[in-house]
Design brief:
With 265 residues, this protein is of the alpha/beta class. It has one domain (6-261): TIM Barrel, CATH 3.20.20.140. It has 9 helices and 8 strands. The protein has helices at residues 22-32, 44-56, 76-88, 112-131, 144-153, 168-176, 193-200, 231-242, 246-261; strands at residues 6-8, 34-39, 60-64, 99-106, 136-141, 159-162, 179-183, 207-209. An 8-stranded parallel beta sheet has the order 1-2-3-4-5-6-7-8, with helices on both faces. It is globular and about 50 Å long. The protein binds zinc ion.
């Protein structure tokens, strides 16, 4: 029997915390069937290193974005120009950017001037994604309704709502707008009732699996650095909650991530 294949659709494997053992993390993933990993960007300072690391590893697929909590008002205009430059020069520099992300809105930061800047930069990045025909990796916390309104009024190619934290109704709205719902280790927490209910009530065709490593470790590894090798076990939890079989969850979520990020292999 062919081993099951999985994709981690959100993993910060470029961060220095993985510098000492990135190869062994990737080897372990390979053994467990985690064959592709999407590595999103959070700040312009980190994009070059992220692209270099992805260029060196066939299984890593880069995304670049400015995370809502890492917007630097002094440099953001220049950062957006750099983003365009990197997208325009991907062929000559031998990398293929699969998405714009992570981008979005984070309402846990209460300062209203920051919220309006977040919205402005979110829309600017939506436009860049649209110009380059790329999907989005969304980071949305405590701002789902606003994000949904923005997406309805700005054309986009869909993508993934990473570490989804909204209601079932909001999940269904995102799905209608062409988004997949990103599910990670948080699902393993027994008190994640709302999320579990959502996962049971949306089609498997709308779910992607992710770890957000090194953060958001699942319950069984809660004091450890999170790692993409946990994806098969996250798939098991999703299968169990939904009453689905693991093979179907693995096959469909992998297919979903391949379709969204245009991964051919
Ligand atoms: Zn992330």
């Amino acid at each position: 029997m062919q081993p099951l294949q999985f994709i981690d659709s959100h993993c910060h494997l470029d961060l220095p915390i993985f510098d000492s053992d990135r190869e062994s993390v990737l080897n372990r993933c390979r053994e467990l069937g985690v064959s592709h990993i999407v590595v999103p960007g959070v700040t312009a300072l980190q994009w070059d290193n992220l692209l270099n690391i992805c260029r060196e590893h066939d299984s890593l697929y880069p995304a670049i974005g400015i995370h809502p909590l890492f917007i630097e008002s002094d440099t953001v205009t220049e950062d957006l120009k750099v983003m365009n430059f990197l997208l325009n020069n991907s062929l000559t520099h031998n990398y293929s950017i699969v998405a714009i992300g992570e981008v979005g809105l984070d309402g846990t930061e209460k300062l209203s001037h920051k919220i309006s800047l977040q919205q402005k930069i979110f829309i600017a990045q939506l436009k860049i994604a649209e110009e380059h025909n790329l999907p989005l990796i969304l980071h949305i916390r405590k701002a789902h309704q606003t994000a949904i309104e923005i997406l309805k009024h700005n054309s986009n190619h869909g993508g993934v709502v990473h570490a989804f934290s909204g209601s079932l109704e909001q999940a269904l709205e995102y799905i209608k707008l062409g988004f997949k719902i990103g599910v990670g280790g948080t699902i393993s927490r027994v008190n994640a009732k709302k999320l579990r209910r959502t996962i049971c009530n949306i089609p498997l065709e709308s779910i992607t699996l992710e770890t957000d490593s090194p953060d958001l470790a699942p319950l069984w590894a809660k004091d450890e650095r999170n790692s993409p090798h946990h994806i098969p076990k996250i798939a098991e939890v999703v299968a169990e909650i939904r009453g689905d079989n693991l093979e179907r969850v693995a096959t469909q979520t992998t297919e979903n991530a391949k379709t969204i990020f245009n991964i051919k292999l």
